[in-house]
Design brief:
The complex is a heterodimer of chains A (291) and B (273). With 291 residues, chain A is mostly helical. Chain A is 74% helix and 0% strand. With 273 residues, chain B is an all-alpha fold. Chain B has a single domain, classed as MetI-like (MetI-like fold), CATH 1.10.3720. The chains are: A mainly alpha (291), B mainly alpha (273). At the A-B interface, helix 1, helix 3, helix 4, helix 5 and helix 7 of A face helix 1, helix 3, helix 4, helix 5 and helix 10 of B. Chain B: It comes from Polymorphum gilvum (strain LMG 25793 / CGMCC 1.9160 / SL003B-26A1).
């Protein structure tokens, strides 16, 4: 009886696990293996070169630049999009005139492909007749700007697009969490004379901590995963000012066909993701008040 | 004074909520506006500018969008069908059977939530080349068919189904698969709807992996098609590009407008652990 359950369990799992291993786990391990090898070229197969790729990595100024960009990108997108998402959720959860329309407005960008989003924003950022230049020229009389072409503003411009795209998505999770908070709890506090701000700070916000953890893990993963818009908006430029790690991996592996070095960069990305996820989990776990 | 304060508070909140909503919708609205007006008005706002569908016609004729749409349709339905079958079976195993290695395997499934196939592009491309699948729709789909997210979501749902139900069915001589088909799947319908919407919109929107693994018109999905279209420096007008942009996201946007409530609820349900 017990044996039959075993066999059943394994058989049911088998198809999914085959694909899971073939395209997630084995490639992840193979990435580490290939990061110690040179890139095969023509008739010359890949050979073991030890830590050479890693040495190259340490001496690669573009890698450090891109890593720094990614840190700024994460810092720029994660807190802002989570903050806006929370604000959106609080508003939309409240009694509000035209609530359905507002909620739809917040969520709509989430449904669009990021590449389509990039197209729309590319149009706004266009020097001269883009929406931004038109508005700043009409309101303040500013001269024509080139937000995407200037290395001081390119990354910021990408960050704005990402926040616009992501905030509505995170709002949904907060909305779900807000609706599961018992009304009686908030009412009890109100009877005690607590104001809106106190209720938010002392009751709602702590109860939202598990959601914040979930959303922030998602946001961290996204800050390394979302590079689609870079392809259209800046192509990583100018001078790698808006390139992110995954975009750099794409360039190295598929533009210059240096797959060995590409694997090394991927190892860094995997290590970063794991470290951040583990760190985040332990950091937040202590502060979360589960019901 | 104190009687009026809450009113002012509410009023300010409504104002803020609406201001943000307008800000959020503005880019989209502007894209729509340029797409339905002649190119001459793309940077000039005029309420009485003549409406036109020319931009859509131009975009449609300038690139093989019908082929791109067909590719995306095949891709999205194919992925969803495979995901539903594979992940239902796996979730059922995790939820109802005890076997050695269960928790370790489940941990490996959850690991995929962190290490997404999107990141393993270098290695997955190597695999596809070895399999001779480069530039096929199958190659775009394969890394995603065993979705850790789907397995997790369905397992959570299956675990809430009371054991008494399947014991009753077992007594009546139902097989395990019969049990799955007649009790578990029907009861998990809302979860299937939720996952279906998430999966379709995710893979409709996916760009990087299809960009890498496809290189011909016959396999490219709309997202890659759109990027090829708008990357051409051949002086295509913005109005036309915006029309193309709206076309590629159109089906999802229309679905979203029609099923707004289900869409939002499905994402919510997907988020609840």
């Amino acid at each position: 009886m017990l044996r039959r359950e075993w066999i059943y369990g394994w058989l049911l799992l088998l198809p999914a696990l085959v694909f899971l291993f073939a395209f997630t786990h084995l490639p992840a391990i193979a990435t580490i293996w290939h990061s110690f090898h040179s890139t095969p070229r023509g008739r010359r197969p890949a050979r073991f070169i030890g830590l050479d790729n890693y040495e190259k990595l340490i001496g690669d100024p573009v890698f450090w630049k891109v890593l720094g960009n990614n840190a700024w990108f994460a810092l720029g997108t994660i807190p802002t999009s989570i903050g806006i998402a929370l604000l959106m959720a609080l508003w939309v959860n409240d009694r509000l005139a035209g609530r359905a329309a507002v909620r739809m407005a917040y969520f709509a960008p989430t449904v669009l492909p990021l590449i389509a989003v990039a197209n729309i924003w590319l149009f706004f950022y266009t020097p001269g007749f883009g929406l931004f230049d038109q508005i700043t020229a009409a309101l303040f009389g500013w001269p024509q700007s080139n937000l995407l072409g200037d290395h001081t503003t390119a990354l910021g411009a990408i960050i704005v697009v990402t926040i616009w795209k992501e905030a509505g998505f995170f709002m949904i999770f907060y909305l779900a969490a807000l609706q599961s908070i018992p009304v009686s709890l908030v009412e009890a506090a109100r009877v005690e004379g607590a104001g809106r701000w106190t209720i938010f700070r002392r009751i709602i916000f702590p109860l939202l901590m598990p959601t914040t953890l979930f959303v922030s893990v998602n946001a961290v993963i996204n800050s390394f995963r979302l590079v689609d818009h870079i392809f259209l908006l800046t192509g990583g430029g100018p001078d790698n000012a808006s390139s992110l790690l995954l975009f750099y991996i794409y360039e190295i592996a598929f533009k210059y066909w240096e797959t060995g070095y590409g694997a090394t960069l991927t190892v860094v990305l995997l290590a970063l993701l794991s470290a951040l996820a583990i760190g985040q989990f332990f950091l937040f776990d202590r502060r979360i008040h589960y019901k | 004074m104190t009687r009026f304060a809450p009113d002012i508070d509410r009023w300010l909140n409504t104002l803020g909520a609406w201001a943000l909503a307008v800000l959020w919708v503005l880019p989209l609205a502007y894209a729509v506006w340029t797409a339905v007006h002649p190119a001459a008005y793309e940077a000039r706002f005029d309420l009485f500018a003549p409406l036109t569908a020319d931009n859509f016609a131009k975009a449609w004729n300038a690139a093989p969008f019908s082929r791109y749409f067909l590719n995306t349709f095949i891709l999205v339905t194919g992925i969803l069908a495979c995901q539903l079958v594979l992940c239902t079976l796996a979730a059922f195993a995790f939820a109802r059977f005890r076997f050695p290695g269960r928790s370790a395997l489940f941990a490996l499934v959850l690991l995929q939530l962190l290490v997404m196939p999107d990141i393993l592009i270098v290695e997955n491309y190597r695999t596809m080349r070895q399999l001779g699948l480069v530039d096929t729709i199958t190659a775009i789909a394969l890394p995603y068919v065993a979705s850790g997210f789907a397995i997790f979501l369905l397992r959570q749902t299956f675990m809430t189904i009371p054991r008494e139900l399947d014991e009753a069915a077992r007594v009546e001589g139902s097989s395990y698969l019969g049990l799955l088909w007649r009790i578990y799947i029907p009861l998990a319908k809302p979860t299937y709807l939720a996952f279906g919407l998430v999966s379709v919109s995710h893979h409709w929107n996916n760009f990087l992996w299809p960009l890498i693994v496809t290189n011909s018109v016959n396999t490219r999905p709309v997202t890659v098609g759109l990027s090829v279209f708008s990357a051409v420096d051949s002086g295509i007008e913005w109005a036309t590009i915006n029309a193309a942009t709206l076309m590629t996201s159109g089906p999802l946007l229309i679905a979203f407008l029609l099923f707004q409530r289900q869409f939002v609820q499905s994402f919510m349900r997907a988020g609840i652990k």
